[in-house]
User: What shape does this take?
Amino acid sequence: MDKLPQNSPLMSIRNLSVRFATDSQTAEAVQEVSIDLYRGERYALVGESGSGKTVTALSMLRLLPDAQTSGQVLWQASPQSPAQDLLSCSDREVRALRGRDIAMIFQEPMSALNPLYTVGEQIAEVLEVHHGLSKREALARAVSLLERTGVDEPQRRAAAYPHQLSGGQRQRVVIAMALACSPQLLIADEPTTALDVTIREQVLELLLDLQRQEGMAILLITHDLPLVERFAQRVGVMQQGRLVEQKPTAALFSAPEHDYTRRLLASRPQRMVGESSDGAPLVSARQLHCEFSIPLGWWKRREFVAVDRADLSLRRGETLGIVGESGSGKTTLALAMLRLSSARVNGEIEFDGQQLLGLQPSDLRRLRSRMQIVFQDPFSALSPRMTIGQILEEGLRLHFSQRSRIERESQVIEMLREVGLPEDSISRYPHEFSGGQRQRIAIARAVILEPELVVLDEPTSALDVSIQQQVLELLVRLQQRHHMAYLLITHDLAVIQAMAHRVLVIHQGKVIESGLTQQVLEEPKTDYTRALIRAAFATDKLSTEPANTL
Assistant: This one.
């Protein structure tokens, strides 16, 4: 073990390379990356999906057992202690560090959480293992952590299972779990991806408070460049496994040196649609009411209203954006429109002149190809046992059985090209792709059926800015070509501004404001909408104090 000087980094990554062996060749995911992380520093790692950001972070904690690694990952728990090379440590030594000294917020909360345990039990387990708390003490602390990360009704949410929470709520649970032991280094892999803008501000302020109190270092992996500009003190830019640029945040944003960095900074969403189309609505809802019955023990139940008497309409070729905080009822409303919600639904839903609520299952199945959805979490939405070709062809075989196998394969290859994936993706499995690439596969699966209505539930939340712009442009092109209607659910008001014709603001299940996108964004009528806009388009830095050792 190397002895580092007093002002040495908390973690020093030296010439890290990561390779994955396949049947025919060895793919190098990370090549000769060197990064120093200091106590109290906020360092951001940015780059396109598949550039090696997450692989670098997972390698630091030895979470890629099938990978071949070289180089050093030197960890120095205190300035006086010798540095440990984590790549050379025993599994037991590394396990003792994980969750206690080094914690990680994973990108996809649904795959990071155990579906068989309540979220409170999963947070409590970390405290029981590393801090020796009793089960009762750990559960009480878990509730407190959920409250600090902005979870409403934390006592009740602690008793819920992951599938019973919204995407944003699950992300906050993962953040609470990572913060449970007050780690020295927090690796945050897209920590605010599923969060609405107001909760994102709360979470970032929470991370800053913890950093000030405990001198915690934060390695932020993200594609959100406005977030990086406001949050980070230094930035590293990765492209195709290499670290191509690394400098203080202000210097990088004001004078980027590498061509790739300049392209990233120029990739923020721009408005891509014109005026809203005219004509009769393709789909509409009147007095739509969605209610869940929540068990409170053996005999008691509580009725929870997720959507309260909502009205909306959507024309062909039009995009209606739905915005609001996590848990406000956005996704429940969209699922109810497609008859996919488990809630009790009342009111009226009409699709192309046909009432959906009274429709028989067999008649509803015949409409499915005309109504598709892109789910928020692509990892849980794609079957791990099917190749990408099988996933994309499945819907074609079901709804267009008259087409030959050659025609279906040709259509699958063409769709892969349209979403920016290589042809050889057809024989690979979902786990072989990055989070952003999986989201493109999910979009391809929906669009390949050429539907008339597509529900987009956070379609670009897992994408870096350059790929996000490509996907938004793709969606607009497909909409113009096929005259599809989009119901767009997102917490990213920049995406709403780029591609929504009209916008609907929902708060605690109620529609509180609606209208043309530019009108709502420029002249909001409610305090809630104004708060969302301020949080989404804020440009001031969250903190200006320097890192402890910089």
